[in-house]
Amino acid sequence: MVEGNHRNTQAIINLKAIENNIVAERKRMSQEQKLFAVVKANAYGHGIIPIAKVAERAGAAGFCVAIVDEALALRAAGLDETILVLGVTPTNQACLLAENKISVAVGDLGYLQGALTYLKDTDQKLRIHLALDTGMGRIGFRNKEDLNEAITFINNNRNKFNFEGIFTHFATADSADEEYYKKQITTFNDLMSVVKKKPRYVHVANSAAALWHRECSGNVVRFGITMYGLNPSGEALELPQTFKAALSLTSEVAAIKQIGKGDSVGYGKTYTAEMNEWIATIPIGYADGWPRCMQGFKILIDGQYCEIVGRVCMDQIMVRVPYSVKVGTEVTLIGENQEEKITALDVAKYAKTISYEILCGISERVQRKYI
Ligand SMILES: *Cc1c(COP(=O)(O)O)cnc(C)c1O
């Protein structure tokens, strides 16, 4: 992979904001609850290792990731807290995971049976978090019989498995309508009735549940999007003011020219000037994670909102500016520029998606700079 270390298109990440967001959440939590920092997908595009390190400093007791490699990257960086892989992992990685003390989500008996054969080669136990599917429809046990069978299997193989946790995930914790959320809680409690001896970690809360359903049970908060300062609900529910966005996306004017009435800009000539206009070219495109559908959106140059004209290219965009701005002028695509501001949510709404997808879409080609 090639990183863009010699260009002025950068994601600037304010580590203090991340730290403050974690500290703020920990203040809201009860004494016995622990915070696991969700750093999957390169820490939602913020850079997995720097974010994990600042999270550790701010008091995170563990980490959640999506894939084995993310967990191994954290271990290689010297982080020794609990690491839970939230997704299903291949059974043939069981030995590697056990030896690196990485915990895995398990949603069916078949995984345990498969993993057992691979655990012959190690004297380390594999740490298991049983996933309960209470309504997300993604991974996990859906009925008491299957859950019971899995717990019995773990108990019969105690020399190979460490039953460390049990968890579920909500589909609508970010919604003002609580009906489905409550249904999931009821299902969760019902499934939990077969768990005679509770494991160390019982967890249900993502950012949204932690923000708006503090009554929900569990001793771990899996803190994701709000650690990065964003609202999991978009704008449906209110995010407390204490949480602040950590990421800005900036570039600079690489070229400036004047075009005349009737001149067009970009592939497919989807924009034609109606008069003499100044057009600035900015070195960021859809290969950097700036979506192709952003034509027409306004970004900030010199404190002014300037429209993206013509199609977004793979590596560049063209922007109509009110006057001949200097080459090298800073451009803000996400973040503050003079008195004005663009949020990841503004970009997401324009692209008809959620802020999560915009953040984790920022590619390796965009250098992360930490302040
Ligand atoms: C990604 C994920 C989270 C974090 O969700 P946020 O909305 O970012 O807080 C928590 N739990 C599970 C199972 C996840 O997959």
From TrEMBL:
Q: In which pathway does it act?
A: Amino-acid biosynthesis; D-alanine biosynthesis; D-alanine from L-alanine: step 1/1
Q: Which residues bind substrate?
A: R138, M314
PROSITE patterns given for it?
Answer: ALANINE_RACEMASE
Query: Could you tell me which residues carry N6-(pyridoxal phosphate)lysine?
Result: K40
| Catalytic residues (positions) | K40 (proton acceptor), Y267 (proton acceptor)
Q: Which cofactor does it need?
A: pyridoxal 5'-phosphate
Q: What is its EC number?
A: 5.1.1.1
| Pfam families the UniProt entry points to | Ala_racemase_C (PF00842), Ala_racemase_N (PF01168)
User: Could you tell me which residue ranges the Alanine racemase C-terminal domain spans?
Assistant: 246-371
- Kindly report, in one word, the top-level EC class recorded for this enzyme: isomerase
Q: Which UniProt keywords apply?
A: Isomerase, Pyridoxal phosphate
Stored CDD domains: PLPDE_III_AR
Q: Name one GO molecular function term.
A: alanine racemase activity
Output one GO BP term.
peptidoglycan biosynthetic process
What is the protein's known function? Catalyzes the interconversion of L-alanine and D-alanine. May also act on other amino acids.
Q: What is this protein called?
A: Alanine racemase
